[in-house]
Design a protein that fits this description.
This protein has helices spanning 2-10, 16-31, 35-47, 49-54, 56-112, 119-129, 134-137, 143-162. It is mainly alpha-helical and 179 residues long. Helix 3 (35-47) packs across helix 5. The longest helix has 57 residues, at 56-112. It is rod-shaped. The N and C termini lie far apart (141 Å).
């Protein structure tokens, strides 16, 4: 009788933990097509060699899913590069050539403009040619005395450019003095 009790104990029903463990593994077999779950399963099974041998079909399926996902990602990268190249060809090249054309047209237009005399350089030449002046004698000169010849010269140049003579009348300051 004792022997029969042991035989019955060996054929005893599985525990709830074992049943739940089988359910989890069954669900993992079904969800192994997901690349995220497949990556986690491969990592788990590679850590434990005994589990990998026990679930070798699941391990191989997960490796296959990961290879397929890697190929899909490479294909998507190639497609994205092709789309970027096409957009660059359609939009980037014409815009770049148009901007280069406008830059070169601007350079051509600037080259076609008549050269103008630098007024500051001309004034310096005129002042340097006049040796006799209050500066050469060492006299004290007021700021208005310096500015008057410059204003008269600029006014004369402006009048000559407009085709009329510039008047040289004195201007009054706010203090009532005449220059």
């Amino acid at each position: 009788m004792h022997h029969e009790a042991e035989a019955r104990a060996g054929k005893r029903r599985r525990s709830l933990v074992d049943i739940e463990e089988e359910r989890v593994w069954a669900s993992l077999y079904r969800r192994a097509a997901d690349p995220v779950i497949a990556a986690e399963l491969v990592a788990h099974l590679e850590k434990n060699g005994e589990m990998r041998l026990q679930h070798s079909g699941l391990y191989l399926r997960c490796k296959h899913v990961l290879r397929r996902e890697k190929a899909r990602q490479a294909r998507l990268r190639k497609i994205g590069a092709g789309i970027r190249w096409a957009i660059h060809l359609v939009f980037g090249v014409p815009i770049g050539r148009t901007s280069r054309l406008f830059r070169s047209m601007g350079a051509v237009l600037l080259a076609c403009l008549p050269e103008r005399e630098d007024q500051a350089a001309a004034q310096l030449c005129r002042l340097a040619s006049r040796d006799a002046g209050p500066f050469a004698a060492g006299e004290e000169v007021s700021p208005s005395g310096i500015a008057r010849p410059l204003r008269e010269t600029v006014a004369t140049d402006a009048g000559q450019q407009a085709g009329m003579s510039a008047s040289r009348r004195p201007t009054e300051r706010a203090g009532g003095r005449v220059r």
